[in-house]
Specification:
This protein is α+β, with helices and mostly antiparallel strands. The chain has two domains: 83 residues, Phosphorylase Kinase, domain 1, CATH 3.30.200.20; 96 residues, Transferase(Phosphotransferase), domain 1. The chain has five helices and nine strands. The longest helix has 20 residues. The N and C termini lie far apart (46 Å).
Length: 196
C-alpha cells in the first residue's frame, strides 16, 4: 500500500505498524469524513491458507459484535493482491504503554477499566465469542477517558471447524488473563515474575 492511495472511499494517511504479513494504517473515510484504521493482508499472507483463513475469521468475528467497547468493523474488501479490513478509529493509549509510563494504576482507575472489559466480555460470551488472547496491549484507554476499547477479537489462533470442541479457546483463558493483568496494574509487577 502507498501513502495517499485511495481504496474505495478510504484514503491511506500514514503507516502505524507492519510485520511480515500485516500492515496497519491510519486513514480517512472520504464519504463520511471520519478517521479509520486500515488493516491490510498482503500477497505473502494470501499465499498462506492458514493466515488468509485467520484474516477472514477475524473479520467474521468482528462482524457479529456490536458493543461500545469493541471497535466497529466498517468494511472488508478482497482486492487482487490484498485483503483489507476497515475499522473504527480508536484514539488513545494502550494499557501496556500507560503502565510503562506510570508503573501501576490507582485502584479506582483499575476498577473502572476492568468493569468495562468485563462488560465487554460478558457481551461477547453471550454472542458465542471468546477473545482467547487478552493482553494489556489489547486494552485502549481512550483520550476522553470515558470508554475503554478492547482490541484483538478474532485474532487468537484460527480454529478449523474440523477441530474438536476440546481444542477451542475457552472462557477460562480470558478470566486467567484478566486476573494476571489486574495483578500487574495494581502492583506494577508481572504476575509471572518468579521472584515474587
Amino acid at each position: 500500500m502507498i501513502i495517499g492511495q485511495i481504496i474505495s472511499n478510504y484514503k491511506i494517511l500514514e503507516k502505524i505498524s507492519e510485520d511480515e504479513m500485516i500492515e496497519l494504517y491510519n486513514g480517512v473515510d472520504l464519504l463520511l469524513n471520519r478517521n479509520v484504521v486500515i488493516k491490510v493482508l498482503g500477497q505473502a499472507g494470501l499465499n498462506q491458507s492458514v493466515i488468509q483463513k485467520s484474516f477472514w475469521f477475524e473479520a467474521a468475528t468482528l462482524a457479529k459484535l456490536n458493543h461500545p467497547c469493541i471497535p466497529t468493523l466498517h468494511s472488508m474488501m478482497s482486492l487482487e493482491r490484498e485483503l483489507v479490513m476497515i475499522f473504527e478509529f480508536t484514539d488513545g493509549e494502550t494499557l501496556n504503554k500507560n503502565l510503562l509510563r506510570r508503573e501501576k494504576l490507582l485502584c479506582k482507575e483499575a476498577v473502572s477499566i476492568f468493569a468495562q472489559v468485563l462488560d465487554c466480555l460478558d457481551y461477547s460470551y453471550k454472542t458465542g465469542i471468546v477473545h482467547g488472547n487478552l493482553k494489556t496491549s489489547d486494552i485502549v484507554l481512550t483520550d476522553a477517558g470515558t470508554t475503554v476499547k478492547v482490541l484483538g477479537f478474532g485474532t487468537s489462533e484460527y480454529i478449523s471447524p474440523h477441530q474438536t470442541e476440546e481444542d477451542k479457546v475457552a472462557v477460562s483463558s480470558d478470566i486467567y488473563a484478566l486476573g494476571a493483568m489486574l495483578f500487574e496494574v495494581l502492583t506494577g509487577k508481572s504476575a509471572f515474575n518468579r521472584s515474587l
